[in-house]
## 1
Amino acid sequence: MGLLGIVIASITLGIALVAKDVPTGDYMLSTFQAGQGFYSEGAYDQAIEKYRSVGDVASILLDDGEIIVVVGEVESTVKDAAIYQVGNSYFKMFEEEFQAAGNLRNEEQKAERTRKAEAYLEQAVSFFSRVEEQAVSEELRVLAQGRIMTCWYSAKRYKEVIRKGLEFVERYPDHPYLVEVLYNIGWSYYELQDYPHSIEAFVELTQRFDAGFQVSRALFQIGECYYDQGLYAEAIPHYQRLVDRADIRQLSEQEVQRMQFEKVAGLVDETEYELTAKAQIRTGDCYSKLQNFAQAETSYRTVVTVFAQERRLVEKAYQSLADMHFANGQLSRCVGAYREAIDNTPSKTFQARMQFRLAQRYVEASTEWGEELFDDAIREFNVYSKGYGEVAGSAGYSLANAWYEIGQAHYSKAERLAQQGEVAPAQQAYNQALQSYSTQLEQFPDPLFDMAAKFNSGLTRQMLGGEKENRRALAVYREIIDEDAGGTYGRSSQFQLARMQFGQQAYDESATIYEEIITSAADPTHLDIAHFELGLVFSKAQKLELATQHLLLVRESAPQFSLSRLEAARAYVGFAEFDRALRVLEIGLQASDSEGERAQFSYLMGKAWIGKGQFDFAVDAFSETIETTPDPLLREIARYDRATSYSRLERYAEAAGDLKALVNSENERIRGPAQKMLGMAYLRLNKQQEALESYTRLAATSEDPAERVEYMVLILELYLELEQYDLAIEMGQRVLQLGFADDKQNRDYWIDEQVYYLIAESQHRSDQFEEAISTYTEGLKRYPDSFYSPDMAYALGTLYFEQDRLDEAAATLADFVAEFADSPNALYGYYYLGYAHFSLREFDRSGDVFKDLVAKFPASEVAPEAMMRAAESAFNLGAFDEVAQLYRTVLEVYPDSPFGDEATYNLAWAFYEAKNEDEFVAGLDQLVSNFPESEFAPDARFTLGDYFFNREEYSRALTEYEYVLQNYGDSKIASEVPEVLKNVREIIAYGEYEQVMVVFSEALSLEKEAKTAEAVEKFRQVVPLFVSLKERFPDTEVEVGALSNLGVCFEFLRQWKEAVQTYDRVISLFAEERASQEAYQFAKGHRDWIVTSRL
């Protein structure tokens, strides 16, 4: 009884404790109201906490369905209302984050805020969906569905709005909220530019409902749908229907005020009064588009008179009127509209806006029409800054804006003057632009314009030029990059900084900046520009492989796409990747819509076909260029290259036709070579006499001494090309004897300088080596640093090398590479200089030269060979660590070079010399594995055999020797293998023979001890061992020994016939001189004894 009482008491106490924590209706209402308070203050996170406290209440002791609140004029249970308000709070948080993200310039920050906003949106939709599914009140469920559509619409997820809206229409076809739903559906279709469906939705709205703002707006939007499709005549009736429906002229003052109150109260975004005015303006726009300017002006002026108290709409009407006149090239009437607006409207703010836009029109007329009206624009902007300073901010065009625009007008004027060649006035205008930007930054700082003004001041300093201004421009860009990292102007400054470095030939610095842009940029447009311009930088720096990598990363949709392919192809042609060039050109050509650009594609195709030696295709490509290019210089170049291609095809008549068109070119670089080629064409057409007579006649009849000498040089070159070297030398000497007073004119060289080179070249080709050396030496003495100096120095150095005059070759080539590092022959200058020192056994010098060659020309065809010779030089100096490093470089940096096997082989021997046996063997193994067909493979295999032999690993040695004999039987080293194999086999055989002899000796011992049975068993065991030895090691002493002892075994086993046969084999071997006298006598004695006594 006492125990039961305790239990009941405990239960009662538990109920009391629970009841104490049960939420009451007052608690839920007060908590909900607290949430509402936080909501109205914008403290949405705190509001959510309160609402969720209400929504999470669950108690069997409280009927929360009886607790009713009002939300949006709808009665609902407090819990449903709380969940609904959680959705509203998240939606408000979404709006705040979404707006904040839109105001950010930093892409990373914008992305982060956008992600946060989307998370809030998803939460809002989630809670509204709960209400839609679970709420007791149908009206609240309807409201929730509407809020979901509002969420999706605010996030611009219009398809979701449409989907949800159509569900609503099907579920609640007669609900009053349907007007909002159809309205949202129509707008969503409009935003998606699905105009037919948008019109359909708005028309349905106007048919179902007679009055209300949504009906008016739907009429307006139907007009907008037609307007946006360019169907202006179809749009007008709908705008007019709205105007007629409103009957604005009949509205009383009180009705207009009521509409304005509704807007102020936030009940509507714009009044029907305003919407009607907009429809009237839009009607004017439609008439303007239809070229009915009189009717358009009537519509605009109707707004000005009927809606005079609506300054914003009057301003829009005047603006549209001005726009119409400007679009038709009627600047005076456009200006007149602005001045009329200023004169007829008392509002200073209104006048200010009209004045600012008037000034802008002068700028637009200058930039778009090519008019010289920048000074008018500057004058009108000055009127604005002086006359409307006190209202500039409220007018929407701050004084900072005005001074920035003044700077822009000065800048545009300067650009125009610079294009016209007016240097001094352009410099003055640039300085005025700079002063205007400075005024804005110093006197009227404004975050909206400061960065733009600072950036444009940098551009202006660039345009002014000079070391001082360029330095200041660079400083400006660096400052902007620090202040606006990741922003628009920060990014633009990076581009400008990179471009300036490029212009100053600081290619590495420029490339570094572009690479920073590529690493940090998220905007694909910026990436396209950066890859394109970085490709140009690498191309200019002769890093052609890197250039093509970046140029080919430009997207197909980018404006730079076709040019990127053109430049990539140019690079491919530059390093003789002609097939890749053609593939890229085909792609780029399909994307190009510029005639001039397409002509460049055709030209480069021609160059690629020349590189491939397919001159007929080259002719077609150059013909396309000649026919299509608007550039006269490119046309001449293409004609010259076509003539070259014709010549290579031996179509000399057609070549001559092109060359005749070029011999009078104003471009000396084309005219001179064309004249020479024309002579050659005549010669190939068997018109040698005509060619020579032509040039001789030109030389004889020319009254200009300089021209006469030039023709004589042409004749010299013709003789040289025809391999008539004696005549060439004679003509050259005649030119030198003239003592022509050459002033170079437009040439890069002196005539006599060229002649010395051509005479020496003729002597060189005709094997007059000493004479050539003398002529080159004299030419260099007279012209030590001129156009042909590099060619003469290089030719002299290589001639010394050919003649094995290595000391003179080394001295001459060393001077050549030092003085003419930019010469196209510099690569081979280093090449022959290195070999000269190498042949002189000056290995320290040869190594340095070959390493310099690789450092300066790492991508050249001889770089791997040079690295090999550098390694050999180090090898000869005993610097084996360096040797190993250099050979590894060949293998790692030039894996596809033809020196892979040699480098691997020599690297192994370097390790051998360095006493590193493990690496030595590993290197040889690598060679035979990776390069089994190499000329070094037989020696490597043989050396491995020797290595294992010396380590007494005879089986492995035998494998290597036999491999040489089987797979490299024709190699020189293979001839040494048979003798070596014989010795190895003898050693291996003897080793196994000794092991068998142990068993044999045990058998003999057992026999001596009279243990006959055991002895017989042991002899039986040893017989197959001797048989195996004699079969596996033929032609060895072990074979003879095995046979002799096998015969003894057979004797002990009393297998007399087998014994005789075995001894007969020994006797036969002796007869073949393959067994010793001792073995013969032993076998003969035992055989005879068996025959006489046992058989």
Note: The longest strand covers residues 68-71.
## 2
Amino acid sequence: MSLASCLRWTRALTRFVCLLELFPVAAGAVEPWASSPLPVQAGLELWLDAGAIPAARDAVAAGKLADGDSLDRWPDASGRERDFAVSHAEREPKLVRIGEAWVVRFDGENDHLRCVSDAGEWSATTLFIVAAPHANPGDFRGFFATNAPGARDYQSGLTLDLGPGPTREFDQLNVEGRGFGGARDLLNDGSPFGTLHILEATVDPVAQEVRLRIDGKPQGTRPFAAAGFSRQELTVGARYYNNGPGDQRVAGPIAADIAEVIAFDRVLDDAEAEAVRAYLTEKHAALAKVIPEHVPVEKPTGVPLVKAEHPPPIQMLVPGFAVEELPVELTNVNNVRYREDGVLVTLGYNGDVHLLRDTDGDGREDRADLFWKNEGSIRGPIGIALTPPGYERGRGLFVSSKGKVSLIVDTTGDDRADEEIVVASGWNEIPQNVDAVGLTLDAEGNLYFGLGTANFANAYLVNEQGEAAYDLASDRGTVQKVSADFSRRETVCTGIRFPIAFGFNDQGDLFCTEQEGATWLANGNPFDELLHVQAGRHYGFPPRHPRHNPDVLDEPSTFDFGPQHQSTCGMVFNAPVNDGPVFGPSWWAGDALICGESRGKIWRTKLVKSRVGYVAESQLIACLQMLTVDACVSPRGDLVAACHSGPPDWGTGPTGTGKLFRIRMTRPEVPRPVAVWAESSQEVRITFDRSLDPVALRDLAGRMRIEYGRYVRAGDRFENLAPPYAVVQRQSLEPRFELPVVGASIMSDLRTVVINTAPMRADVRYAVILPDPAGAAAGDVESDRTHPQTEVDFALRGIVAERHDVDGKLVWSGWLPHLDLEVSRGLLAESEYHRPLWDGLEQPGTLTLHTQVDLHDILRPAIQPGSTLDYEWPDELATLVVSAGQPFEASSVEGVTIERLDREGQGEVRLSASSDRAGPAPLTLRLPTGEGEIAALTCAVATNEDSRPRPLPLRRFLLPWVDPTVTSSDGEAPALVIAELDGGSWGRGRRVFRSEQAGCFKCHALQGDSAAIGPDLNNLVHRDYASVRRDVLNPSFAINPDYIGHVIVLDDGRTLTGVLRNQDGKLWLGDEKGKVTEIDRDAIDSMQPAKTSIMPQGLLDKLSPDEVRDLMTYLLTPPPHMPLDSPLDAPPLRTPAEVAAALAGSQL
């Protein structure tokens, strides 16, 4: 409810004006220049009235202020002489006139006003603020605060602010202070920014409660442990605190118009409070009506994220899966694993261990038997490893928990644990509920687990004197190894925050998931991570610091999961259990299945081992509506997911009720996406592992959607869990945009979809929503497919590859994800589209690779946006080393150094770019094929601080046409200039189009033509020259699924090929000559899709170069028109059909 809507209360409340007679006026009567009489003055401590500022200045001959002038002092009308001022002119707010009213406008940058008085403490207060906030970018932007000298406002006084934010509207209000500590949003309602409201906060020591009202309407409350709170220093338009080192200071400046602030040193009774509300409502009614038109509120850009209605518990983003809940009731489960006999073992958050069995043969575990009842021995457990078959100490499991790692075993064979053996202990415990985390065994029986960092909020353990106690030799923040006989424990690596899950892949290498930490340390684990654990490395938490941690280098992660605060927890490698199948299609074997707890995610992460380490690519495959903590593969090839109830971060805890789900593949034959990439700035391609059904993809362009933005990902519309961090809310406010789709087709391999789009200018993430590529099978009900689409996302990353034969003819061109060919081959093993490239490398010719390589901050952790460091690093010089089985050529641009080191028939190139070079380094490689080990092209990176070679992640290769400085779609796109069309004529091109020689008009509609055998071409003006020319030269390269040809054999022996149409109950076939034939359905002996387009090859061979240029001009440019700028009224718009009719018979 807005302030204006409160006017109806005014007349009913005028009777309360007589309350003035019931209370004596406080010492220090209100100033004579104050505006209309305040109906309640007893206990009045502060009265700031923007409307009274002109009169106050007149009273002291301070000089008049005009609309928009800076305000150096806001006089107090209470008579207490608590005027507010600021010492620096650049921090002064503006006095702004809106209609007949005045407000004080704070810019949200540094504007504020302060008052220092000799007042003591309040034990109670009633506070009114009339204000219109403009925006909430986050970080607790303050309307009003009080504090004791040198102390934080929320610890010594009180604050009314916009909370951690950011928010899209005024829907957060934090009321916090001494005796009611901790940020808490008390605002239940939301309203647009730029609207005027009466904020009313009451701190009541008798009721031991803090209450909030907005425009008179009750909002939230919170307990108050009665205590005095200071009023010695007061701030309006900001807050006063500093949580870091150094003195307390003004913080959290707000962007808002503030019209009035009134504070009492007591709790007003109901009648008094209503009288003040009525006074303020009537006084500011006119302002409330007009202020939205005058407030500089930033208009939202882009498109809103539309959440999916009624999302299922688990939405699979790839087709062919079904989801079922296991019919067991357990408290929240932290870990799940299958035993060798097919029994599912669960570890509860409360420490209980259960054995789950399927008693009715339906594939779902339905009975839970207690294996171990935790009687307080185990605290905060997370991480299990089952004992191997025939283990000499008994059957059971290892458990990581607070202060120890235990082996819980059954030594009698009755499936009830009877012994707990402490395997490892002796480290200093930390205050958090979790301590030892994650657990796995290697092939020799050695155990690996993690010890969480000593203090995630103060990683360097800096004391009040600024001295750090962080010890690199400590057990804390490490991966530990315990020998198989439990006799030895040693540190494997350092720099670990909280590694929740461990596992060995099929190569015998150790990996772990690692938690994000930049909320507390700007460059400490800026993302949730997958780490390849290597002995002696330091993994960045806490990161290198010139004073606190100078003797380490921060090892880059193998993969970063974003956006921030995914909370990567459970992980299992997709391997057969008891010789059963893997989860999903067979080519998913060996991939890591990783759970994102806080936002409800499951990723499939493929790892390819190069000569110098691992490169990873990750696909989000599921979005969940519960906190996703762990998962494991079953002997049947299903995936069992363990979910907690409650909100992020850790839900309802050890006593809450969780759920277990089974995800099973129900349609193995369904095509699933292998890779998605930008083939050019106006073309996206998605390749699948099986042939697509063209019929299921009819009207493909109209049924798909592409959105993009810095934090856009696949599955966003199913994400309903939001961790309570400001950076997460800030991500949600980042604009997202829709990328227009102007066409879609299927390549001749029937596995690759080609999507034509508007130009992709922004170097951000792109998410694609596709219809189910195979359609739902008859009678197949998939509980997860309430929304039967496939979703994938991609960035503008990769390599442009071209292979020419010995005569210089281009025989293959396309995209690769990585410069290392073995890495690309591993990631694209299921891509039929790329098979000709791999086969062609054995043929004589040339392979050319184009990319841009980001060589910045190789060993420097990223810094969380909005944060800064208090130190600077020395320059880092990175060197990219590219090696091949034979010499090759390399080129770049000025400022990038390239050195060739060929020897003994081997080729090596070293590319270096200094740290002060802006942007990535362009790179082109030209390699002979058919000679030597071309497929062994590898690359690695080293720096001047560490010569050890490391792999480059996929994100460091930008496509050669990408401008990394463009990160949004703000502003107009530059006019597209097509050099190949220079000198072309639209009119002459129309004549070519409609000529018998070209014959285009017989099949295609364009500019009013009505033919429908082939696709409508009116959208070609939105496509690029190269792809349109390619489609004309090679019509079968990619075929619109709405115009797939068919080969029909009739009962009279005739074979017809063309595009079928069902119209008016009749079947029509259009052939390559534009002829349309009616087909009798009963006369069809057989019918099957054609593998090629019916459009004939060699069309452009019939035309001269000038005619080709004119035809392309007609296809790719809008028709000529009169100037759009004119003092005359525009003539009525004409449709393409009307234009075509007017031109009929002409030579145009």
Note: The first strand starts at residue 44 and ends at 49.
## 3
Amino acid sequence: MKTNKIKEFFATSWAIDNKTSIYVLTIFITFLGISSYRSIPKEQFPEIVIPTILVNTVYPGTSPEDMENLVTRPIEKQLKGINGVKKITSNSLQDFSSIAIEFNTDVEVPEAKQRVKDAVDKSKKDLPNNLLQDPTVADIDFSEIPIVFIQISGEYDLDELKAYAEIAQDKIESLPEITRVDIVGALEREIQINVDLYKAQAASVTLTDIERAVASENMTISAGNITNNGMKRSIRVQGQFDNMDVIRNIIIHSSSGAIVYLKDVAEVKDTYKEQESFSRLNGKNVITLNVVKKSGQNLLDASDKIKSILDNELINKEFPADVTITKSGEQSRYTRNTLEELNNTIIFGFILVTIVLMFFMGFTNAFFVALAVPLSMFVAFMAMPAMGFSMNMIVMFGFIFALGIVVDDAIVVIENIHRTHQHEPNIILAAKRAAGEVFLPILSGTLTTLAPFFPLAFWPGIVGEFMFYIPVTLILTLFASLFVAYIINPVFAISFMKHEFDAPDKQKMKKKIAIEMIIVIMLALISYAYYAVSKSEAAFGIGNFMVFVAALILFFHTILNPYIKWWQEKGWPFLMGLYERQLRFVLIGRNPLYLLLIVIGLFFVTIVLVGIRSPKVLFFPENMPNSINVMVKMPIGTDQRVTDSVTRIVEGRVLALLGENNPVVESVITNVALGAGDDMDFARNLSSEKGKVTVNFVEYKYRNGVNTNDYLDQIRDEVKGIPGVEISAQKNRAGPPTGKPINIEITGENLGNLIHDAAAFHNYLDSLQIPGIEELKSDFQDNKPEIAINIDRERANQYGLSTGQIAGELRTSVLGKEISKYKVDEDEYPIQLRYSEATRENINNLINLKITYRDMNSGLLRQIPLSAVASIDYSDTYGGIKRQDLKRIITISSDVLTGYTANEIVPQIEKLAADFPVSEGVLIKLTGEQVDQAETSSFLGMAMMIALGLIFFILITQFNSVSKTIIILSEVIFSIIGVLLGIVIFNMSISIIMTGLGIVALGGIVVRNGILIVEFIDTLKERGMKTRAAIIQAGLTRITPVILTATATILGLVPLAIGFNLNFETMFTQLNPQIHIGGDNVMFWGPLAWSIIFGLSFATFLTLVLVPALYLMVYEFKIRLQRRKSNKLARISR
């Protein structure tokens, strides 16, 4: 018989010998952890940094095609040589070029911006010499999305409402968390000088004369200082305009020398610019404030401060009582709700885990183990600020994911201490020996659990940036759990663990219960007394919580405790006996081989079942929309008033569909021109051809089971049938930003061929009416209306005129020119000069417009009609020419209707595209979401291989045996059976990201229990036990920690998987638990949670049955090989 070697882990032994220091450290960790949690910024999603730089160039009078050739191409030529560039896209428009350079996510934004600046500087030598200004280089902040929309309304005109909006704007912009506040739907004051063409010509007054006169009169100039009676006084000439009559009575010296008053040739009006944007709330005109938060700031803090400003400073104080302020689209509401649900999921999962542990280990031991959850999270909270993490739903899921796993180490340590203490009365020795005995398998198990998450931390691309927080959070928390299990748990164990077999003293027990009840009731009474004085909701909640604790104490001691005792003395021993009989049967004869063949057969049967069932394959889980955007797009060049009229029709249909006082609908917001782009459109410029109607729904828990996807389908049907308009309805994005589900890129250098083939393919797909496609839309427009002024350069040169002079005169005449500022207190308003509307809107008047200029030969002013040097053409031009990676491109895209997936539709389009005839050099390719999906699938496959490699290396290092390593790794492969069977049986969809992530993560989780079994078999064999007996004893000894760790992990995820939500805070503070099933979190995380639950449930069977069987099978195979080798050597020796 071999002697048992006593093992100790020095860190645990040191902690036990210095337990006072550990108690202080525990208090310190708790305090700092809670403090860190309170200070961490709260967000719904992590802020994703996509290094993207914009290069914008203005070149007036240039067509899109010329803009592409003269400006876009030369800049792109230099940009293509920059390192780290992922994609270059450009859009050449009339007078304007915009180039977006997207870098790989490992490139810092300042570095990317500098590289682009250097490239643009190199390109300047190839750009036109007469550019008004150099190309501008700026970065895009993808976090600059409005966090709330504030609507201001009342029985006031828009000018008065704007004044109130500006007060609110100034106050909100003063908050350190806020970047800016944009005002939408307001009128902009301006002073208009509308010149009558005929009166001006009769008086020989030109626009230049008026500009010169106004600019020279509207000024205040310092004339220096003089000394008067020993006092220095400054001299200031005051000429600033202070009313309209002063402007009207300005004297203009005409080119003929006559004196003319401005009022004689022009109308001077104190009015407003033509309304550039429109905003409505539930069909009523409002002024909207779009509030944008600074990157990295706390969303919830910003929201609370904005609410404080509105409630405490503006409503019924600075604002009259009849001014109404409404908030909509409030991100903080969804964020707060999401974080509350995830917090409550953690608490509920923690309670379930603790209850299960109580049945196996008793209340005291369960409490030690449960300590690992908050303490591990506190350690992670402390590290998060240093890593720049915010508290968002991705990080919170990382903690939920870790909930059942972090107790695994503590379960094994405490269970082993508890078991060792039954044979070793000295609790200190028992704790040291027990911790040392399981240190190596626990360390190995933790490393193998973390192995799949290390490659996930290097997930490339936008999806990787988004999901990065899960593996890092888990790695932090699991390492923290290892620290808690070996440093803190043993210290608590030696202080409070009792012999389970000691008969309890009933008198002491009654006294203990009485003391506990008195303390709890006293705390409750104190809380209620404080509530009676202060009306503090928190005090009321604490009082109710204490009453709940008192009820739990009574419930545990009077009702639950007998059941726990029965389970520990009869129920669990009976199941262990049943397991022992089954295990002995499995180990008989060829049964291990038959079991292996059955599992392999089940693996292939499962794959066949998946093929027959054909579950839907999604890139990302489908969410139930919190908001729906109805996008309206008119032809480029459409006046914003026309766009508004069409948007009103769409808005009316949506409002009629939803009905009045719909309890599911929070608000319907309409924006036209400004704020009407896609949520991921970061350009803040006006788009007169765009409108957007946004339907915001109430939180999921208040929808009474209504599926908002039904509204999406109904809205899509309702807004159809308006000719000449592109209308699409799309729900809010959930998850990382990705391309459109259907995104067809058609590239080619010959623009004519490209336009023809793109239109032909577009029409071809439309004719097929492929089910599931919402509406295919092209981003190319070749019918933008224009009036081309063709300059006869030869004739113009004869008159001494240049193209620039003619264009400048026309621009001032039609568009207008700001010639000065009109000041009122601290505000300045533009003074705008142009011809009257009758002249501007009449092309005949414009073509006969006289161009006034100074003849360089005679020095005299001359006037030449525009018709003498130019002709006009009515034509259509391109809305813009887009390029991607230096190739011309036209994109056709669409969303997918509810009930369909892109994976069902895209293969059909790919087949059609392959057979579709196109011109030489034209290529059709499907991209968008499919590219992200392919990259993600490829990465997850590679991550799985890397994870298996890391696990293999860790196991080889521990066991120094290939066969034992393969035995344990077989769990990983066969655990996929559980995942796929669960999906087939419960008719679930497969999410590429979430299901894939669950399978990868599962690989590390299932291995640790296999390690416990194999390692203990080896330990028992070292102690002299026969192999078969060692296998059976190891199974019986480790079944408790195996079942507990698996059950803890599963129960930690169950609340999230089924979407059970219970608000513990309101349950005590308002006596309203707000119980509901479902929500955004279960849709988002459900596939991942179920993957782990299904896989781990099946893997537990593998651990307890297949692993022992494989161990025996391999052992017997080695024995037979040794016998053959011995027999062979014996025959040779004869």
Note: The CA atoms of residues 422 and 501 lie 8 Å apart.
